[in-house]
Amino acid sequence: MSTELVEDESQFYCKAKKYWKAVPATVDGMLGGYGHISSIDLSGSKKFLQRFIRDGSHKIGTSYALDCGAGIGRITKRLLLPVFKSVDMVDITDDFLSKAKSYLGEDAKRIGNFYCCGLQEFTPEPNRYDLIWIQWVIGKETDVSFLLSTSSSKISCLFLLLCFIFI
Q1: Which of 166, 150, 160 is nearest to 67 (CA)?
Q2: What is the pLDDT of residue 89?
Q3: What's the rounded Cα separation, in Å, for the pair 92 and 20?
Q4: Domain boundaries along the sequence of the chain
């Protein structure tokens, strides 16, 4: 791909933020109009995650998780909170994080932090997370920003990227 075809990164993220501002704060909105696949997606994600929380050489802790591109908390509520003691959520859209507080109900008190920023601006705290969950939003990041933000944080945890591909 030639450099002429690559957008300026700031313009790329500006467009992304504008796009997400126009998306409804619903499960259907979070899944780009494919809300009907949520239960199938969650079922596969649970099976995938179970591989890493059982006994074995790849076992991870279950204290703290980070949900990247958390939206209204669909993954946080149905996948992460049933397993982890606490979850931090990061999303670029403040309306989604506001909606998450009501969507999560009583479980909202188990959210450590609601970070409102793009993933390209977010640097996870070193050694805080047992799991960083990045799924649907990974396609909305540039390779450079994603790699810089995760590798520079030097986190000792398991990254589950694009998990729906491996299920």
Answers
A1: 160
A2: 97
A3: 8
A4: 8-166
23's torsion region: left (phi>0), alpha (psi -120 to 50) or beta?
A: beta
- Of 143, 144, 137, the residue nearest 164 (C-alpha): 137
pLDDT in tens, 71-113: 999 999 999 999 999 999 999 999 999 999 999 999 999 999 9
Place of tokens 């998306």: 23
**Side chain identity, residue 143:** D
The confidence score (pLDDT) of residue 22 equals 81
**Dihedral of the CA atoms 13, 19, 20, 24 (nearest 10)?**
180
- 105, 78 Cβ separation under 8 angstroms: no
Q: Which amino acid is at 97?
A: L
Q: Which CATH number fits domain 8-166: 3.40.50.150, 3.40.980.10, 3.40.630.30, 3.30.70.100?
A: 3.40.50.150
